Amino acid sequence: MFELYLDTADIGQISRFSACLPVRGITTNPSILARANTGLAALLPGVAEVLGEKARLHVQVVSENADAMLAEAISLRKLPYNIVVKVPATEAGFTAIRKMKAQHIPVLATAIYSVQQGFLAALCGADYLAPYVNRIDATGADGIGVVADLQALIDRHQFPARLLPASFKNTQQVLGVLRAGVSALTLPAEIAEEMLAHPAVQPAVDRFTHDWHTFFGQTLPHDS
Ligand code: G3P
User: Quick check: CB of 135 below 6 Å from ligand 1?
Assistant: First the structure.
């Protein structure tokens, strides 16, 4: 089952898009929380109210060594929410992921910039892998290509890891990762909005409305 996430801590946007889309949860990172000027105690109750108690909430650790990351993960998992612990896919992060998986903690390996790095994170047992599509493009590499190659390797080795690409700046990048066969992704609110707002759609709907009312007045179709 495909999992759609919102990459935001903006409760207004979470509320808006979860009304019209089956949003599985949210992804956050330290920058997103700092930008939204909110800690978890202020954010998570509101998110759970909007998305429901089963919503999956991806929350990143900030410690820089594996044992401290593990301690953070254990504390995060004590919170009364369905939290997946985000861990940067660094050397310390890989060590932490292995320790977390030994304790059956759900983990997302984040800040993935290469196929090789993502492959190692999957090998360490990460449940989710978050390649940063636009940031990879910004380095001069091919974000969609990284996602496609990683998805192929995961399929070939039948790793349980699920790709959850992040960092989108346009809807073509989203289309690219969908074509690569990912089964999850996280959208910034601006990109979710763009995906719902093809410029030709509203004029088409307006034309239907105009034609109907011109001929039938205020009568509704079931009474016509
Ligand atoms: O969750 C990671 C994602 O938020 C990174 O996105 O837009 O900062 O490249 P961006």
Answer: yes
- The set of catalytic residues is 86
Q: How far apart are CA 50 and CA 168, in angstroms?
A: 24
Check if 132 has its Cβ closer than 6 Å to any atom of ligand 1: yes
- Residue 7 CB–ligand 1 contact under 6 Å: yes
Give the orientation angle of helix 143-157 with respect to helix 115-123, to 10 degrees. 30
28 CA from centroid of ligand 1 (Å): 9
Q: What is this structure's pTM?
A: 0.95
Q: Which residue has the tokens 């820089």?
A: 64
Domain over 3-199 is classified CATH 3.30.300.110? no
pLDDT tens for 88-130 read: 999 999 999 999 999 999 999 999 999 999 999 999 999 999 9
